[in-house]
Every structure is written in C-alpha cells, then in structure tokens.
Design brief:
By secondary structure, the protein is of the alpha/beta class. It has a single domain (2-255), classed as P-loop containing nucleotide triphosphate hydrolases (Rossmann fold), CATH 3.40.50. The chain is built from eight helices and nine strands. It has helices spanning 45-52, 75-85, 101-111, 116-130, 145-157, 175-192, 203-206, 230-244; strands spanning 2-13, 19-30, 34-38, 60-65, 86-89, 163-167, 195-199, 211-216, 219-225. It has a six-stranded mixed beta sheet with strand order 5-6-7-3-8-9, sandwiched between helices. A three-stranded antiparallel beta sheet has the order 2-1-4, covered by helices on one side. Helix 3 (101-111) crosses helix 4 (116-130). The chain binds adenosine-5'-triphosphate. Adenosine-5'-triphosphate binds at residues 13, 15, 19, 21, 39, 41-47.
C-alpha cells in the first residue's frame, strides 16, 4: 500500500527572480518503508519536506498521505490531520522547556483531547519502548541531546502516525548519539512498521534507510537501495553524493 504518493509536484518561490525549487517530483513511499532524501545544499530537500508535511503549499501537483490529500483540507481539519497522521522529528528537537519530558511526549494527545488514562497508557508504553522511563519527570534542559531526541521521537510516535518525517534528526548530535538515534528509528520502523521519510546531509544517518533518493536542482535524479550491508550502502551513498557534487570530502568512513 502506498503511504506517500507525490505526483507532478512543483514549487516556485515567487520574487523579483522566481526560484523554481522543485520540478515534476514523482515519489512513492510504500507502507513500512524507510526512505532517505539526500542532495547538495539548495537542491530542494527542505522544500519537499515542507510540502509533504503541509507546512507549505505546492505550486502544482499533488501530495497524498494514506490516500488523503492534506492540501485540500480546511485549516482545522489539516491541524487534526497533522496530529493524527504525521509525526515530526527535527534537528533541534522542538521540545518545550517549560514542560517535563512526559508532558512533551503526550502533547499531541493533549491537543486532541484524548482521555487521561489513554495518555498515561500510551506514554508508559512508548517510554518503555524507547528506554526513557527514568527521565519522564525531568525538564528538557536536564537531559542530554540524545535523550532529547529520544523524547522527541516518543512524541512523534505516540499517536502511531501513518508517516514519520525526520528533518536532520542527527544534526545536533555527536556520532555516538547519532548512531543510537538512527538505530532507534530503524528498530521502530522494523517493529512498529512505521513508514519513515528522512531528510539528511549525513550519510551515516541515511545508511539506516531502506532506500535513498537523491535530488539535485529540484529534480529527483537517482535512487539506491540498501540490500544486506549497511557499510556498503554507506559507501554507495558517499559515492553518489560525490558524483552529484555533494561534500563527500568532509566525510570520514570512520563513522561507519
Ligand atoms: N522561502 C523561500 N523563498 C525563496 N526561495 C527559497 C525559499 N526557500 C528555499 N528557497 C530556494 O529554493 C531552493 C531549494 O531550497 P531548499 O531549502 O529546499 O534546499 P535544501 O536542499 O533543503 O538545502 P539545504 O541542504 O542547504 O538545507 C534554493 O535555491 C533556495 O534558495
């Protein structure tokens, strides 16, 4: 089943000189797939993510998530759609400092007026799953970056979203924490069957995906599949970035 279907998607940012950020994008992500989007700076990755996440609207073309077109929804319906169908994980975690880790995690359910018992049950289950039960009462400034990202992933997963969107989730983490977060996302993808789309510059992060799609100058150019060896996939990703004009020279295979 197709969980995400992007058809003929175009985005032009108007201005004195209009920027054509995306051109005729066709992308399908099947239920349970974990797909990475990579490409050089300015290639259109964030624009694509913003159109899929409904933060921005396409100039033309269509986005379907779980068979629904979110861009056709009214504002209120769209807010509910985002809470129920989408999970978001960001580079800077986007947790609220004034709330505890537990309060941050249940926020999507609170906004959806779910009963307290259901919130508590889901909170305990996801916290256990992610190994963060002992930090639920802490504030976000009392925990490490890796723990913050785990809390953010718990918040993204608590409503069992149709599609989890991760925007540079390892961008603020050291290599150990990055690896832990990617292993966690991979495990959740495998065990919960959550469909995931990751946008990243980081070949290590992308090497945890089943498939990586490359974008250049607003067009999808190539895609590669992981197969059995993550290490070989990591190398293929670096080779492709280098071919596309990415910054492979900054990368070290030590991170494999
Ligand atoms: N709000 C905007 N208004 C005008 N142009 C924009 C806007 N946002 C992005 N662009 C342009 O659209 C193109 C694609 O940008 P986008 O941010 O999607 O690239 P990216 O691949 O995410 O880059 P990076 O890896 O550096 O984050 C670029 O040429 C950029 O300058």
């Amino acid at each position: 089943m197709e969980m995400l279907k992007v058809q003929g998607l175009n985005k032009v940012y108007p201005g004195k000189i209009a920027t054509r950020a995306l051109q005729d994008i066709e992308l399908t992500i099947e239920k349970g797939e974990f797909v990475g989007i990579m490409g050089p700076s300015g290639s259109g990755k964030t624009t694509l993510l913003n159109l899929v996440s409904t933060i921005d609207t396409p100039s033309s073309g269509e986005v379907r998530i779980n068979r629904k077109n979110p861009h056709a929804l009214k504002r209120r319906e769209l807010a509910a759609f985002r809470r129920r169908e989408l999970g978001f994980v960001f580079q800077d975690f986007n947790l609220l400092d004034t709330l505890t880790v537990a309060e941050n995690i249940v926020l999507p359910l609170t906004l959806d007026y779910r009963p307290f018992r259901e919130m508590e049950q889901k909170l305990q289950a996801i916290a256990h799953r992610l190994g963060i039960t002992d930090i639920l009462g802490k504030r976000t400034y009392e925990i490490s970056g890796g723990q913050r990202q785990r809390a953010a992933i718990a918040r993204a997963m608590i409503s069992s979203p149709s599609l989890l969107l991760a925007d540079e989730p390892t961008g603020s983490l050291d290599s150990n924490a990055s690896r832990n977060v990617m292993e966690l996302l991979e495990t959740l993808n495998r065990t919960e069957g959550t469909t995931m789309m990751l946008v990243s510059h980081d070949p290590l992060a992308a090497s945890y995906c089943d498939r990586v799609v490359f974008i250049k100058d607003g067009r999808l150019t190539n895609e590669i599949h992981r197969g059995d060896s993550r290490q070989a996939f990591f190398q293929k990703i670096i080779d492709m970035l280098s071919y596309l004009g990415g910054n492979a020279h900054e990368l070290s295979s030590i991170r494999v």
